[in-house]
Amino acid sequence: MESESLQSELNCLRLRDTITPLNERKTLMIELRISHRSLNTQYVDGFLHLWAFYVRGFNPRFHCQKAFRGQISQRIKTRTTPLNTALLLGETRSYDTLYICGVAQGPVIARRERNLHLALEFSDGASLIHTTYNGYQLHIDNAIALPIPELPKNWRGLPDSYTRCCNFRFCVYRFGFQD
Q: How is the chain split among helix, strand and coil, in percent rounded to 5?
């Protein structure tokens, strides 16, 4: 168990060393357009919660959205995110990562595999398409998706609510963990 925890920490540190520091990066906008091949509605539906966060840092005392330091987007919100509309996501000039989260509908036990967790880093000219559990396609320009590595069970003595939380795991990977 100790070697698993140590290996996870080493992997996080190794990956973190490849990150371009905030003050050396250009702050340009990521573009997002959400579509669905069979729904003809005006707004995204099918998520209990949908939001995006401009992440600048990490508060390791919390998990879920509270782990993020930064600013929540006003453009990506539950029940008001438009379909088939280009959204320019640059509401703040200073951020490290744009994190999009959608909590799936349905039984709690099934949500872990169905929730939307997408960590994006600006990358001029890059593009990707991400498909959600319910058939929405997120067309993203000027960004790459970053990994959200797993943490071992009981990592650093933390409960599952932390070590299984994608937001917390991403922050450990991206920003490191300080006791």
A: 25, 40, 35
